[in-house]
Amino acid sequence: MLDLDTVRTHPRRVQEALRAKGTGSPDLVDTLLEVDETRRRAITELQEAQARQNDLSQQIGTLKREGKDAEAEAIIEQTSALKETIKRLEDEVQAAEEKQEALVLKLPNLPHPSVPVGTDEDDNEVEETFGEKPAFDFEPAPHWDLAARHALVDLERGAKVTGSGFPFYLGKGARLQRALLNFFLDRARERGYTEMQAPLFVNPESAKGTGQLPDKDDLMYDIPRDDFYPIPTAEVPVTNFHRDEILSADDLPRQYCTYSPCWRREAGSYGADVRGLNRLHQFDKVELVRIVHPDESYRALDELLADAESALDALGLPYRRLLMCTGDMGFTQAKVYDLEVWSAAQERWLEVSSVSNFEAFQARRMQIRYRPEPEAKPELVHTLNGSGLAFPRVLAALLENNQQPDGSIELPEALHPYTGFARIGRDE
RNA sequence: GGAGGGGUGACCGAGUGGUCGAAGGUGCUCGCCUGGAAAGCGAGUGUGCCGUUUUCGCGGUACCGAGGGUUCGAAUCCCUCCCCCUCCGCCA
Q1: Strand A245-248 versus strand A368-371 pairing type
Q2: Stated in angstroms, how far is A303 CA from B5 C1'?
Q3: To which CATH superfamily is domain A121-424 assigned?
Q4: Does nucleic acid strand B have an atom less than 7 angstroms from the CB of A59?
Q5: How close are the terminal C-alpha atoms of chain A, in Å?
Q6: What is the CATH number of domain A4-104?
Q7: Is the CB of A247 under 7 A from strand B?
Q8: Closest by alpha carbon to A110, among A25, A33, A23, A28?
Q9: Quick check: A221 and A261 in contact, CB under 8 A?
Q10: How much is the CA Rg of chain A, to the nearest whole Å?
Q11: Tens place of pLDDT per residue across chain A (428 aa)
């Protein structure tokens, strides 16, 4: 959510953001400012009426205490018209506030000046590529073939039991998942994150806080009977942990890491890119969340990026870093990097992490504030998050990139203490 | 799921219709005291919104879990919902 004051003072900047992100119409800003005008006028009128009412009520109280009931009655008679006025103005204010709230929620975050302007993924900037793509003197198999050959993943039975995109992992596949979980969490903890286990369902208020509602509601599954949403990312419960709180300056920064499954409806996805583990309805992820002082958030973004990248480095996977353009970044973000891992058999880059600075956009919705000095007015914090990392595509890349001529898979050394085995498909 | 108790400021905790944004305490800030500290003493210390103001600020209004209602007037009375605690039931 944007600050109304920003919209009032820099309407053109907001309109530019709407255009750059390709969301909503620029008229939104004008409509919003009109509603704001109406709202403020109504509030002023209402408060004047309330002041009169308070004054009269106080007089009545005084008169009654002095036993001057007749005089009190005379004043009470005057109040009935005022009562109606107040009722009417209250309704007006409420209507205007609701209208305004709905409009404000449609305004996306302003992109940071360093973000390239663009319309779609083709305009994202490849900032840097890391590691060497593996070369094979045989035809490398895609991960779904490798997973089937070694019985690591069973999508068919997952589809039977639940539906497509809900995999079973078994044997070394399951153990590898568990190894990734511990590997990522241990690394995050060593890098200064507090480990957390979060609820996997959230209420609508939380989904609104991080920006999944109202605009991205078809991303999530929902449980209408109890008014819950299975989380599409642990960002939602973890960031909402501090919702409606005023932290002291000493409490900042807060850094949390958590493992969770994530559920996404992925409505409208289809085609060859969804094969195997490329796109699932349920997947596992370690998420990193930072809540920081506003002056620190871009330094924190760099650190967060380094945290995510270091995990890929440790796994020896080739990857590249993309700076997302205005048209391809999300509604809530001010600046986003994507990390994409090289998938050697598919010969594609697969997104395994998205690292974002939301500045105060989420914090304003969630009312997460901090007090700069003991007696000072509270101010909004900045929030950031990044995957560290998403499992399925990491798994896909591990299988594809590390496959051997005999079809076995050599795992990177960093994982050995976690898996308890060094390879898949030999010495079994 | 059943029965009972309860949700008040950063925290604890008074307050059952008017002068209550709310006693008292703790914490915190500033000052006094001290060689320094503790203790003690004094003053201050909520948030949002609207208006006003070049700054400090000032005026108004709302907020005592949420939403509705009664009343000239609600933290206080009534209704609905949410959450927490205790006991019972069920259960990993």
Answers
A1: parallel
A2: 49
A3: Bira Bifunctional Protein; Domain 2 (3.30.930.10)
A4: no
A5: 55
A6: 1.10.287.40
A7: no
A8: A23
A9: no
A10: 27
A11: 888 888 888 888 899 889 999 887 888 999 999 999 999 999 999 999 999 999 888 888 888 877 777 888 888 888 888 888 898 999 899 889 889 988 998 899 999 999 999 999 999 999 999 999 999 999 999 999 999 999 999 999 999 999 989 999 999 999 999 999 999 999 999 999 999 999 999 988 889 889 888 877 788 998 887 888 999 999 999 999 888 888 888 888 899 999 999 999 987 666 667 789 999 999 999 999 999 999 999 999 999 999 999 999 999 999 999 999 999 999 999 999 999 999 999 999 999 999 999 999 999 988 888 888 777 788 899 999 999 999 999 999 999 999 999 999 999 999 999 999 999 987 55
Write down the ipTM of this complex. 0.85
Indicate the angle between helix axes A27-65 and A69-104, nearest 10 degrees. Answer: 160
Q: Work out whether strand A194-196 and strand A254-263 pair parallel, antiparallel, or are unpaired.
A: parallel
Residue whose token pair is 């005999």: A406
Tokens of A364: 């304003």
Nucleotide nearest A77, CA–C1', reads B72
Residue nearest to nucleotide B50 (CA to C1'): A44
Judge if A4-104 and A121-424 fold alike in CATH terms.
Answer: no
> Long-range contacts: A360-363, Cβ < 8 Å, 24+?
A360/A3, A360/A294, A361/A1, A361/A2, A361/A109, A361/A211, A361/A332, A361/A333, A361/A334, A362/A209, A362/A210, A362/A211, A362/A239, A362/A332, A363/A291
Active site residues of A: 264, 279, 351, 354, 393
Q: Where do the domains of chain A lie?
A: 4-104, 121-424
Which nucleotides of strand B lie within 7 A of protein CB?
10, 18-19, 28-29, 44-45, 47-51, 60-62, 68, 72-73
Q: Which of A105, A34, A49, A117 is nearest to A79 (CA)?
A: A49
> For strand B, is any atom closer than 7 Å to the CB of A170?
no
